[in-house]
Please model this.
Amino acid sequence: MGERSLIFDTTVRLVFDAAVVLSLFMLFAGHNQPGGGFVGGLVGAAAMSLRYLAGGLDELRSLLPVRPWTLLSIGLLLAAGTAATSVVTGGPMLEHAAWGAEVVALGHVSVTSALVFDTGVYLVVVGLMTTVLEALGDEVDR
Amino acid sequence: MSVLLAVPIIAPLLGAATSIGLGKSRRAQRLVGMSVLGLVLVDSAFLVWRVDTSGVLVAHAGRWRAPVGIAFVADRLSAVVLLTSALTLLAVLAFAIGEPGTEDRHVGFHPTYLILTAGVSFALLPGDLFNLFVAFEVMLMASYVLLTMGGRADQVRSGMTYVVVSLVASSLFLLALALIYAATGTVNMADLSEKIADLPPGLGRGLAVLLVVVFGIKAAVFPLFFWLPDSYPTAAAPVTAVFAGLLTKIGVYAILRTQTVVFTGDLRPGGLLLVVAAFTMVVGVLGAVAQTDMRRLLSFHIVSQIGYMIMGIGLFSVAGIAGTILFVVHQIVVKASLFLVAGLIQVRAATDRLDRLGGLAGVESVVAALFALAALSLAGVPPLSGFVGKLALVQAGAEGGAWMVVAVSLAVSLLTLFSMSKIWSAAFWGEPSEPLAPRASRVSDRRWYLMLAATAALVAASLVVSLAAGPLHRYSTRAAADLLDGSDYVGAVLR
Model:
């Protein structure tokens, strides 16, 4: 790891939170508008990569509460699990359910099981990208 | 009933997710892997029974009906290939658990293997071309990882060839999809079979040939096979076995599926396929005769045998396609078992070079017996399973008047027998160049017998294919009639 660049460090610090918020926004907006778990996950993973470029693997590890492959595993479980749930209840695979409720201050909020699926995809993408950084980045750092 | 269609894809994915989480305990990973594959095997057996008794089974994902939504379709062809694949995947996983090496050392083996399983099932079941593309990608991603799992320099080098060739094939596939979509406005295969017939015939034929090229690369037909003998032999033994048994046959399956259901009548490139078939057989077997490593030699035979399958498709008759289906079932099992025998020899003698091996028949007579059964079956010696498949193909060729390709296929059988006897006399007879170390110094008894049992199970499965040749041939004939007619399939998907 060479010298840390002040300009890059500061920019990353400014951009990182906004990128994570954007990625989460895309995850939630994706049901009826452009976005979704995959695109959101890519933006999230790009934010992670920025932190990695600025501070190396140590900084990347400090960001995540768990190891990257745990994310991968949870994401795949969520996604495949949602696909399986509708089969268990007797429908075709990937059939989704929707619930709606009036929430104070937010108005009508609707939640679909597709959101769980998308969250799974999001976690798979972020998990995979961070696993790649973890596996291949080791050598580059030294 | 959509459970039957969902299990082969979703169960391996859930298994892979669990397996990643269980990374610390190899024993738990093994339990998950074996039980998931066992489940898929039982499921696909039910699927075969179900589609044979009550017709094509369709599940529309998320209740979005085809051609707008994604349909998963099982007919007689996909069900029987799925059953054979599941059996092979299960036996090879048992072998991998026994083999000292890859599976022990890599935490990622089980998850990747399960993803590969999901990809294989996914490739057999989609009702539209785009999901076929996605399935191929899933399968390829997993195979890239498995191929280079040892991390040796030669693996990375040949993995590179494999990745580049696969990427080229995938780009061509995408291009073909774009053209098909632009011309017809759909990628659903049932829908296409009606809409392609309305296109100008030249365009239809062009699209058919483009898809033959795309899947021809995956299936390793002449002249697009060069990547295969280069990349397969460097992988670990169980990985090579499952690649050799399954992946190219999935390419053949895709050719068979698209050229029958999607393209109808005189759009089908019959003559082209027959010529390709003859060249594939001859070039593959001649390549094999020149090899001195057991696994490289067997890899060339993969190519050669693909020719027989293409020959059956090229005839476009019920008998020809029935022969191809029978032959695919036989090949998946026999090819995988031959590579498992090669794996056994590699473990036992620490080499698979024919000039260093020798005298194995006296030391490991069970291995010799397993090899003999599988090799004779590959060459097509009666009454083994290869004979059944080849007989069906040769009869179909004679009925169709394709004498040239029939003659070629018979000559190639002889050369196959010759190169199998070359392995036999070099590895099992004679004296080794250096005396064989005792088995206990290479591998523990428990592991050895597990590997042996897995190989024996596959060889036994090939014997079942020849014993049940009558019912199986009738089943294949029904499957072939469905494919060439296509109305059941189209009706079931679009109804």
